[in-house]
């Protein structure tokens, strides 16, 4: 009986360690995504998204809210950096319902765009077309 308890504790501890390692790995995989978006490197962003999807089975919508670039979401960062190619790609990859839902600051993308005077941005036009 004591052997079973020890084995159970060992298995639980191992699974906790592996879960922590998996979380660190996804953070490492997404580490430079802000730089990729800011430099408007659509090909590299596509590779990054494909690698995360194949390695961790996560799509953009799964990790979009967890990534912050200087306090902004990825699409907001693309708009502020005039990264039209990467911004457009992300808008097309995101579900319509996620594009209309409030972000971490409680504002939707459309409200944030209007507030910051970015209505003339090509990414804004793509967002309006998708919604």
Protein architecture, described:
The longest helix has 28 residues, at 2-29. Helix 5 runs antiparallel to helix 6 (84-93) and helix 6 (84-93) runs parallel beside helix 9. 69% of the residues lie in helices and 0% in strands. The chain has 131 residues and is an all-alpha fold. It has nine helices and no strands. The protein starts with a helix and ends with a helix. It is globular. It has helices at residues 2-29, 33-38, 42-56, 60-63, 74-80, 84-93, 96-100, 109-115, 122-130. Residues 16-22 have low confidence and may be disordered.
Question: Layout of helices and strands, plus pairs?
Answer:
Elements lengths: L1 H28 L3 H6 L3 H15 L3 H4 L10 H7 L3 H10 L2 H5 L8 H7 L6 H9 L1
Helix pairs in contact: 5-6, 6-9
Classification by helices and strands: mainly alpha
Give the beta-strand count: 0
Assess the beta-strand content as a share of residues: under 5%
- The value of Rg in angstroms is 19 Å
Query: What's the story with the biggest beta sheet?
Result: none
Stretches with pLDDT under 50, minimum 5 residues = 16-22
Q: Topology as H/E string? A: HHHHHHHHH
Cα-to-Cα separation, first versus last residue: 60 Å
- Name the overall outline: globular
Helix count equals 9
Averaged pLDDT: 80
Keywords:
single chain, 131 residues, mainly alpha
What is the structure about, briefly put?
This protein is mainly alpha-helical. Helices cover 69% and strands 0% of the residues.
């Amino acid at each position: 009986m004591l052997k079973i308890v020890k084995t159970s504790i060992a298995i639980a501890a191992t699974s906790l360690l592996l879960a922590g390692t998996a979380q660190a790995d996804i953070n490492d995989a997404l580490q430079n995504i802000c730089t990729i978006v800011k430099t408007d490197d659509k090909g590299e962003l596509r590779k990054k998204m494909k690698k995360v999807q194949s390695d961790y089975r996560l799509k953009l919508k799964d990790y979009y809210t967890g990534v912050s670039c200087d306090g902004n979401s990825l699409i907001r960062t693309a708009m502020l950096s005039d990264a039209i190619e990467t911004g457009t790609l992300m808008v097309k990859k995101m579900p319509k319902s996620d594009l209309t839902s409030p972000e971490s600051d409680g504002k939707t993308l459309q409200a944030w765009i209007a507030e910051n005077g970015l209505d003339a941005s090509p990414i804004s036009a793509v967002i309006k077309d998708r919604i």
